[in-house]
Amino acid sequence: MASTASRRNYAIVTLAYWADTLADGAIRMLVLFHFYQLGYGAMQVASLFLFYELFGVVTNLAGGMLASRFGLKSTLFMGLGTQMVALSLLAFLPATLLTVAWVMVSQALSGIAKDLTKMSSKSAVKLVAGDGEGRLYRWVALLTGSKNALKGVGFFLGGLLLSTVGFQKAVGVLMVVVGIALLVAAVMMRGGLGDEKRDRKAKFGRMFSENRAVNLLSVARLFLFGARDVWFVVALPVFLSGVLGWKFWQAGGFMALWVIGYGAVQALAPVILRGRDPTGRTATWLAWLLAVIPAGIAMGLVSGWSAPVVVIGGLIGFGLVFALNSAVHSFLILDYADHDKVAMNVGVYYMANACGRLLGTVLSGGLYQMGLASGSNGGLVWCLLASAMLLAATGVLSLRLPRG
């Protein structure tokens, strides 16, 4: 069982993670809607986030090694400091002078910051919760669910700030949020977090896990998050604004409510799944169930049903099942991870997660742009069909996870 100091430090890490998550969700909406408002197409908007996802892959891979060598406290401060630099690149340059290349660099730093803080917080759960019956599952579900709820608040905050105070002032507000979190962590954190697990000789070549279950789950995670982002990251907000005619704050608000609800379901996953520790079997049937939903939404749009009803209703169902699937994955990676390599195992897992987001982002912009040739709904339909195929791959991989 972890010491009182470790528990206290873990609480501070979690609060810092929440602040960074809020800013991360808000800046995504700010950048997306600001450039869409300037007349950029779906593929151009998607390109703004390519470095964000690409550097997330690199950060998760190297972050596990850095945490193993220098401790989770160090990676936390690296993440918050990097986020401040990323936001400053957007806050002090007039919005009219922002170029795609400049925003891509800022987003690259944001991706690094987000994944360093996430890896620090998620790894700390394993160290603090231990292997008590059901405790790890509950704590992971609560942390993951609350994080996603705050990301949803960030989506709404980004759309609202863009509509009310403009791009630059909105970024300034986010700098204050992250700066306060950095100051609180610097003043209140005492000692280290999981320092007894540090491996000062950790090397990059040892990052890739020899644990078969960790590797299988990581690849399944890649396809799972690719399936979400292929229609959620670019295609959905562009569809809501460009096809359905929603205002930015309405689209951002709706996506915020979806992510908040998704986070609440994640936090309640142990209750919904009757409190039992999930297994590979749980991940498998959830993946197959999830694959049916985007396919059904696509069929409804092609059949000429009411687009708002089909998309909103389908998105609610997708969010419910996806949240349960993601919560199960988040528990399984910590359950499978070796105690002496938890940061490295989690790093590889979230590297795969970032690869999935990168894949989904690229496909989201490209497929949406190409699908528009077949009608206003065609872009979203293409993305939904790609989502269903990626989820089918997730189900196939999950069949090979430990069943007990």
Task: Give the structure's gist in a few sentences.
It is built from 15 helices and no strands. The chain is mainly alpha-helical.
Overview of the structural elements:
With 404 residues, the chain is mainly α. It has a single domain, classed as Growth Hormone, Chain: A. It contains 15 helices and no strands. The radius of gyration is 20 Å and the shape is globular.
What topology does this entry show?
Layout: H1 4-37, H2 42-47, H3 50-70, H4 72-91, H5 100-129, H6 135-164, H7 167-188, H8 212-232, H9 235-242, H10 248-267, H11 269-272, H12 280-302, H13 307-336, H14 342-371, H15 378-398
Helix pairs in contact: 1-4, 1-5, 1-6, 1-7, 3-4, 3-5, 3-14, 4-5, 4-7, 5-6, 5-14, 6-10, 6-13, 8-13, 8-14, 8-15, 10-13, 12-13, 12-15, 14-15
Keywords:
single chain, 404 residues, mainly alpha, Growth Hormone, Chain: A, 15 helices, 79% helix, 0% strand
> What's the overall geometry?
globular
Structural class: mainly alpha
* CATH level-3 fold name: Growth Hormone, Chain: A
Give the helix tally.
15
CATH architecture: Up-down Bundle
Termini separation (Å)? 25 Å
Tally the structural domains. Answer: 1
Secondary-structure element order, N to C: HHHHHHHHHHHHHHH
User: In total, how many beta strands?
Assistant: 0
State the low-pLDDT regions, or none: none
Proportion of residues in helical segments = over 70%
CATH superfamily: MFS general substrate transporter like domains
Strand content: under 5%
Biggest sheet character? none
Average pLDDT, all residues: 80
Text of the CATH class? Mainly Alpha
- Based on CA atoms alone, the radius of gyration comes out at 20 Å
